[in-house]
C-alpha cells in the first residue's frame, strides 16, 4: 500500500511540476504524513519525477521552459519547505558546474537545479574561461566538474580543461548542444561522461561515485 502511494506521488509530482503548482508540490513532498520519511523523498519521489520530465522533453512532449521550472521549483522546495533534507545533502564542495565561455546560462541552471533535487550541493562557477576553471577546480578541490556549452568552439576548448586536469583525480562531465549533434565529441575532448539531458548528470555522477 505504501509503495503504491509513493508511485502515485511520483505521478502527482510530475503533473504538479509541469503545471507549476507550488501548493500541490508542497503537499506531495510533505514528509509528515507517515507514508514516507523525509530522508527518502529525494531518491523515491523527486529523482524519478525529474527523470520522467527529462524523458518527456527528449520525446518532445514538454518544453525546455517546463524542464527549467521543474528544477527551479524542486530547488525552492528543498531550500525552504524541507530544510532538514539539506543536512543530508551529498558531496558538499566536491562538485561544480560551469559554463565554458558561452553566454547562455540556461543549461547550467537546469543541471544545477536537478543536482540539488537529487541531493547534491554543486558550486556554481557561472561563465568562466579555461584558466579560471582550472584555478577554481584546484582551489576548491573539486572531484566532479560539469561543463555546459552551447557553441562548438567552446565545446572544443574543453580539451584544454581535461588536459589541465590530467592526473588530478577530477572527473569531467560535459553536456550541451554540440554533444547532442556529435555523440563522439565527448571522447574527442577527453570527457569522462557525456550528458544529453539534465537528469543524465545525476546518473553520471552516481556511476562515477560507484567506480571511485
From TrEMBL:
So which domain of life are we looking at?
Answer: Archaea
Q: Which Pfam families match?
A: B12-binding (PF02310), B12-binding_2 (PF02607)
The UniProt entry, under SUPFAM superfamilies, shows:
Cobalamin (vitamin B12)-binding domain
Looking up InterPro entries in the UniProt record yields: Cbl-bd_cap, Cobalamin-bd, Cobalamin-bd_sf, Meth_synthase_dom
Where does the sequence pass through the membrane?
none
Gene Ontology molecular function, alphabetical: cobalamin binding; metal ion binding
Give every B12-binding domain span: 91-212
To which protein family does this belong? Answer: Belongs to the methylamine corrinoid protein family.
Mind telling me what this protein is named? Cobalamin-binding protein
Amino acid at each position: 500500500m505504501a509503495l503504491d502511494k509513493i508511485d502515485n506521488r511520483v505521478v502527482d509530482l510530475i503533473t504538479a511540476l509541469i503545471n507549476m503548482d507550488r501548493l500541490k508540490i508542497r503537499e506531495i513532498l510533505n514528509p509528515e504524513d507517515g507514508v514516507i520519511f523525509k530522508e527518502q523523498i529525494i531518491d523515491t519521489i523527486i529523482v524519478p519525477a525529474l527523470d520522467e520530465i527529462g524523458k518527456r522533453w527528449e520525446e518532445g512532449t514538454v518544453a525546455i521552459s517546463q524542464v527549467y521550472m521543474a528544477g527551479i521549483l524542486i530547488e525552492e522546495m528543498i531550500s525552504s519547505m524541507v530544510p532538514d533534507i539539506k543536512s543530508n545533502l551529498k558531496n558538499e564542495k566536491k562538485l561544480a558546474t560551469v559554463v565554458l565561455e558561452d553566454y547562455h546560462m540556461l543549461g547550467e541552471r537546469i543541471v544545477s537545479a536537478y543536482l540539488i533535487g537529487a541531493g547534491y550541493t554543486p558550486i556554481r562557477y557561472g561563465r568562466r574561461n579555461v584558466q579560471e576553471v582550472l584555478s577554481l577546480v584546484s582551489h576548491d578541490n573539486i572531484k566532479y566538474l560539469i561543463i555546459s556549452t552551447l557553441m562548438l568552439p567552446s565545446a572544443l576548448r574543453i580539451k584544454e580543461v581535461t588536459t589541465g586536469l590530467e592526473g588530478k583525480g577530477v572527473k569531467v562531465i560535459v553536456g550541451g548542444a554540440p554533444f547532442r549533434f556529435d555523440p563522439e565529441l565527448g571522447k574527442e575532448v577527453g570527457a569522462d561522461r557525456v550528458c544529453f539531458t539534465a537528469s543524465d548528470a545525476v546518473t553520471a555522477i552516481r556511476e562515477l561515485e560507484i567506480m571511485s
